[in-house]
Fold this protein.
Amino acid sequence: MPRLVMILASCLGLGLAGSLQTTVGDEPTEGNHSTSALLSFDDLQRRLGEPGLRPLDVRSKDDYDKGHVPGAVWVDVQAASKLAARPGGLDDRQAWEDWIAHLGLKPGVEIVVYDDNRQLDAARVWWLLGYLGVEKVGLLDGGFSLWKNEDRPVSAEAPKVEPAAFPVAFRRERRATRDEVLDALKSKSARIVDARSDAEFTGAEKRSKRGGRIPGACHVEWAQLVDKDGRFLPVETLRAKFEEANLQEGEPVITHCQGGGRASVDAFVLERLGFPARNYYPGWSDWGNTDDAPIETGASEPK
């Protein structure tokens, strides 16, 4: 059996206990990190009420108040997104410690994040929590509407959470800066994966000063990786999509979109497929507004 297939068989479709282990970055923390776990509905329902499991709901507060997974804690994803997009925001340790304290996280607790937006908001929070140094964080395989439609348990009661100090330890190996992307282009040390739409990739749609793509970037739009209910596509389908983009097994990759969220969906899948993945979180909002950053436009040539 090819090694990549074995990696996929062992990594995808498992619960939190079967997630990949990743290494610690330039700021040491204790123990191993588990940041690409995917939890099924059945697994989550079976584990509801476990003190060592903390579901996080990243939908709107109004939707959360109407009903959520029992025991789930509401997360203000908009506040996190604004903080991350602020100049220097991804390096503001105190601001992140203030934000994360409200989640009341304790050492060893496993986190599973869910949304109702085809993983866009959940993946963003998944990536940010892993970047901040949360050791065990994954995604629920499907959105809340599907959970409710399947008559899974729902509660309108918000759990009482005491704020707790969480010592943020930025995991630099999960993030790429513009300079690091430029270095990767020169050294060919990593492939760039663009998670945006076709129109953004070709430059037909501009969301920044300039439109287009990073030279040589391969295009795997985030929406190709999940179905309408927020469930990730089958293993072989996901593998084929990245093979079609000419990514090689185990090749280091840097994902990006306009501002972090869509790139986080790609990064989650790539990590589970065995690719060392970093997220150029500011993405095209930074690159497309930097006059001397190289770009390409139009249809890409087959590689």
